[in-house]
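Field log, afternoon session.

UNIT: design team B
ACTIVITY: writing a sequence onto a fixed backbone
BACKBONE:
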C-alpha cells in the first residue's frame, strides 16, 4: 500500500452503547424490562401488576410465595393497581356491586408501547438509561361483570418507568363518555424489608389519619419516625404533595416516595393473626419482611366530567 503524506485519518467509530431490553414471556402473560446496568422489573398483564423490581442486585418489592399469578385472582404483593374503588364499594348506588378494590387489579391489560431514553455518557463510561412501559385498560376490554358494575365509558393508561435509581408509576384516567363519574385510585405497593421491627416511616408527623384497626377512628400522627409494632392499617389524608415519605431500616433511609397529585397514603401490615388468615399469604411469617406504603386518592372521590382527565403517580427512589 502506498504511504500518502496527506492520507485522511480514519473516521472514529463510537462503540454502540447497550440499551434496555424488553421481553415477553413465552405465554405472553408478562413482560420483563432490564437496564444495561442490571436494574429490572417484571409486570404481569393481569392487573398490570408489577411483581418484581430489582435494583443494586436486591429485590425491592415483596411478593407472597403463595401469590396467584395465573389471572384467576388479584396478586398478593408487588404493586397492584386499585381502581375505581378503594376497599369495599358503597353499600348502595350504581357501583355497589364492584368487587373490593375494584376491577383494575383483576383485569387483563393491553401492552401499548415501550420507549427508552438515555442521558449523556458519564466519565466512567456508563449512561443513565431508562425504559417506560405503557399499559391500557378501557370499558371495551373489561369483563361483562365489571361493565355491569361500572357502567361508564373510560380509558386508563398506566405508565411504568424504570431508571437506575428509581421506579415511576403514573396512572392517567379519562372519562370517554357523556356522563360524569367519581372514582378512587391507589398504588398498593408492597415493599420488602429485612425486619419489620427495625423499620420506620417518616414524613407523616402532624398529619391526620384514620385508624382502621381502631374502628376507623380519626387520629393525629405524633411520630416523626413511625414504627410498625403490631397490626397496622392507617389512611393518612391530605398530605403535602412536596413532602417525601421515607422508609428506613435500622435508622438508615432505604426508600423515598415522592407523590404527584395523590394526597393520601395508606400504611398497612397484617401482622401475624391476619396474615395467617389469608390463603395467598406466605411464608407464614412473611409479615415480618414487608410493609405496604401506598400512595393514592382514597379519602374522598375524584370526579371526572365528560372528556376530562386525571393523572397521579409516584416515584420511588432507592437510597441504599
Amino acid at each position: 500500500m502506498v504511504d500518502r503524506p496527506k492520507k485522511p485519518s480514519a473516521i472514529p467509530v463510537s462503540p454502540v452503547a447497550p440499551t434496555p431490553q424488553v421481553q415477553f414471556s413465552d405465554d405472553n402473560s408478562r413482560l420483563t424490562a432490564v437496564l444495561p446496568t442490571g436494574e429490572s422489573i417484571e409486570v404481569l398483564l393481569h392487573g398490570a401488576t408489577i411483581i418484581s423490581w430489582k435494583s443494586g442486585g436486591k429485590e425491592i418489592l415483596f411478593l407472597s410465595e403463595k401469590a396467584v399469578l395465573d389471572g384467576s385472582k388479584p396478586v398478593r404483593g408487588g404493586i397492584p393497581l386499585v381502581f375505581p374503588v378503594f376497599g369495599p364499594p358503597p353499600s348502595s348506588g350504581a357501583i355497589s356491586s364492584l368487587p373490593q378494590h375494584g376491577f383494575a387489579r383483576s383485569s387483563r391489560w393491553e401492552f401499548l408501547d415501550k420507549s427508552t431514553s438515555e442521558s449523556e455518557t458519564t466519565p466512567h463510561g456508563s449512561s443513565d438509561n431508562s425504559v417506560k412501559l405503557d399499559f391500557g385498560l378501557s370499558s371495551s376490554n373489561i369483563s361483562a361483570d365489571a361493565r355491569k358494575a361500572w357502567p361508564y365509558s373510560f380509558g386508563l393508561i398506566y405508565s411504568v418507568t424504570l431508571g437506575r435509581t428509581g421506579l415511576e408509576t403514573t396512572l392517567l384516567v379519562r372519562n370517554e363518555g357523556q356522563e360524569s363519574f367519581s372514582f378512587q385510585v391507589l398504588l398498593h405497593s408492597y415493599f420488602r424489608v429485612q425486619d419489620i421491627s427495625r423499620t420506620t416511616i417518616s414524613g407523616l408527623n402532624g398529619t391526620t389519619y384514620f385508624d382502621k384497626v381502631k374502628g376507623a377512628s380519626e387520629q393525629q400522627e405524633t411520630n416523626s419516625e413511625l414504627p410498625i409494632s403490631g397490626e397496622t392499617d392507617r389512611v393518612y389524608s391530605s398530605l403535602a404533595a412536596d413532602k417525601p415519605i421515607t422508609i428506613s431500616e435500622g435508622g438508615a433511609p432505604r426508600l423515598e416516595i415522592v407523590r404527584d397529585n395523590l394526597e393520601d397514603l395508606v400504611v398497612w401490615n397484617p401482622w401475624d393473626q391476619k396474615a395467617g388468615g389469608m390463603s395467598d399469604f406466605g411464608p407464614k411469617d412473611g409479615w415480618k419482611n414487608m410493609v405496604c406504603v401506598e400512595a393514592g386518592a382514597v379519602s374522598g372521590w375524584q370526579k371526572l366530567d365528560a372528556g376530562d382527565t386525571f393523572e397521579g403517580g409516584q416515584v420511588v427512589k432507592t437510597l441504599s
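LOG NOTE: The first strand starts at residue 21 and ends at 24.
NEXT ACTIVITY: expression trials, pending approval
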